Amino acid sequence: HDATMAIMEFDEMSMYMFMEGLGARVEALRRQLREAGIECVSEAAETTSKKIMQWMKTSSDEYEGDHLVPRVGMKQVLLFESDVTWKRCLQAVDSRLCKTYNASSEDCKVACAVADVSGQDCPLVFISEEFETLTGYVRDWALGRNCRFLQPNDRPVNKVLNDVEVKRMRDFCVEQQPPGTVIVNILVNESHNVFPFWNVLLMEHFNIDGRPYIFGVQTNLDKEKKRLCELFAMNETCVRELKRLRHELQNVHIEAADDGVGLYEAANKKLMKFLNGMPASLLPLELPS
Fold it and tell me: How far apart, in whole angstroms, are the C-alpha atoms of residue 76 and residue 53?
């Protein structure tokens, strides 16, 4: 109860300070528009909208780059921590962990997270220490928010690199799925220090006491980073090769389970096969020694 009241008070104070700042910003914009002699309503509205959006991104913690990620799921976080617990989640997905990651509920050392499907904006209610290490985002900031903060901060860049995958991932999270339903996404993500990394994301629907959750595990493609970086040129060839990489890795979780080698090893093995077929135009330049 005390924790819930503290969160509610914090949110009220944050909202009060935010609205005060927003009011001051609007008044300052009104003065600037008058001084600039902008009289056209549409022009003034567009200018004001851009200025306010820029201010919101830099003055509140509800944005990460171009992504709105408000912390709206703290009630779900408290519910998870008090009634569900991480151990029960691990037991629910123990079979998947054993087959795909060579891990178990007794020794789970993977970058993973749990999201509450029934909560507003599908908030994260748990992240592992390995998730914090891989992404640079700590639980005190990440919990209660949608995981879209991991997508590249620049919206146009994110659209080129992840557009189809983001749509697949959103449909998987929003549409009701039976327990055990699995999806694999290959995403270009960004860490908290805006450093890109390649994420083979496996997500699975499961239930605890009839309440739906999603268990997600992040696997970092960290081999041959120099060659993978060539895809960030985002030209037509790079987009085509990125599509080929995703096709190559689409069923990697099944092969990892069948071969018993773990998803990390299976994914990086497939990555090497993909790189062997990469066009010569995308080979990194070697500087003379």
Answer: 28
